[in-house]
């Protein structure tokens, strides 16, 4: 009985490997960006609301946020804005912890940035108060005071993430993402590979759209 079960498991494993070897299944599907991405002009970059503050690098997510905004400014395709109400797209970033399980600090104030984005010769500066900041939920209402900062455990957030959502909709982060990138050092300063990959995707989508308007 045991030998029969072992042979059955082996046979199923071989079938599964054979299916993976088929050309039609081995290739990943080509990603098609939604039309609203190509029509977008403004973008707001937010820190993932679920991301915690690392004990060893407390400003990692804020630095990644500014690096992404700087890379977008250099690209010139989209205009970074502070308010999610003014954004055609919302990009959510999160620096990976590099660990399968890590202790961080939950703080809802990470996305509370008053002011405007001002490109400078050295990169990017944020300043100039323009009303109260908005909550990451894009409800259109000013963010409330945090109920409390507390430790939390992050599981599986080993890699950097960069996710694009449609803006100017109710609860944008609750909608399916238009595109996502996850990888080690995807939000690396100066280079920001995630922005480079997104740039390639947009270029391919625009090229395809020009052939099939």
Task: Describe the structure in your own words.
This protein is of the alpha+beta class. The chain has one domain. It is about 30% helix and about 25% strand. The chain has helices spanning about 1-20, 25, 35-40, 60-75, 195-210, and strands spanning about 40-45, 55, 80, 90-95, 100-105, 115-120, 125, 150-155, 160-165, 180-185. The strands form three sheets. It has a five-stranded mixed beta sheet. A three-stranded antiparallel beta sheet has the order 2-5-8, with no helix packed on it. It has a two-stranded antiparallel ribbon with strand order 6-7. The chain is globular and about 50 Å long.
The number of helical runs is: 5
List the helices and strands in order.
Answer: HHHEEHEEEEEEEEH
Low-confidence stretches: 17-28, 127-146
Calculate Rg over CA atoms.
21 Å
User: Which structural class is indicated by helix and strand composition?
Assistant: alpha+beta
Mean pLDDT equals 75
